Amino acid sequence: MQLKVSDQIENKVSSGELSGEEASRFSSFVDTCNSEFMTHPVITDNKFCKWFASGAADREIVKHFIIQFSVFSNLFLLAQLQKMINAGSLEGMRASKEILANELGVIFHKPGGKAKEVADKDQEGDPEIVSIEGSVDGGTFRFRAAHFEWLLKMGEVIDIGFNDMGKRRNGTPATLFFCDELSAIYGNDDPNIAEGASFAVENWAAAGFWKQLVAGLEAFKQVEEPNLPLAFFTWHDRIEDQHAGHVMDELEELYFTEDFDEEKFLAGGRKMLDGVQAFWSGLNEHRIAHVHQAG
Ligand SMILES: [Fe+2]
Questions:
Q1: The pLDDT of residue 119 is above 60
Q2: pLDDT digit string (tens) for 13-29?
Q3: Furthest CA-CA distance within the chain
Q4: Distance 190 CA to ligand 1 centre (A)
Q5: Which of 1, 138, 163, 200 is the right S-S partner for 109, CB 3.0 to 4.6 Å?
Q6: What is the pTM of this model?
Q7: What gap in Å lies between CA 228 and CA 260, rounded to an integer?
Q8: Which residues contact 128 (CB under 8 A, 6 or more apart)?
Q9: For residues 77 and 100, is the Cβ–Cβ distance under 8 A?
Q10: What is the predicted pLDDT for the residue at 212?
Q11: Fold of the CATH domain 47-294
Q12: How do the domains of the chain map onto residue ranges?
């Protein structure tokens, strides 16, 4: 996967909004991001996800995976709140708040768009039908729409109790390292570091790991657990596809702001990807140890 400068840049040069020198400075920065971020093994060679996609995970591994993912998903809320508090602008604060409020259960609302007809009120908040577009502004809050509650529903089906999910004490050292790095880097009080981390995380997410997880879970569901709800994962996959296009526009906007610091941005991104890698390596080591144990 390679990041590309959008055509928009050329248009901005022809319209005089940017000078040719500015445009080429930006494009060489994008090249640097390619060599610094997109070559990272967590993007190019995520061993756990590759293996998981093949459908080889048994019940034990799926349970361990869901628990660790639930710890990440819940502790991510702390990092997101820090990112919101430390935002460098009102716009940045709102962008973070969108993500946080949606995680907690505010359903995206698309102004002018028709809300999906929900026959049964109890279905409101169901990830099968909640929107991936719009803003939390004007959106409806539903407990059931909290992403963590979607994971709890998965847990229910495969015998993982409420207190076995989402808490610090349920995390392995690798998972907690990742969560702590999220707080420290993604939630950093220097917006340049936080934005670098955010950019790196977005690109990691766009690299296709949701699809690999969905593939593996579908295989498990078919054989082992036909009632396993997968919508937590399919919903995130859908929203990621849509996000991917925005990442470059956001970088471009950020790059030309007064306080932008290339070095800090790159350092934040690199360190964050190492943190993400620790999470997946932990899962990979667990599944290798499990196979040895079982075999
Ligand atoms: Fe989420």
A1: no
A2: 888 888 889 899 999 99
A3: 66
A4: 24
A5: 138
A6: 0.91
A7: 45
A8: 231, 235
A9: yes
A10: 96
A11: Heme Oxygenase; Chain A (1.20.910)
A12: 47-294
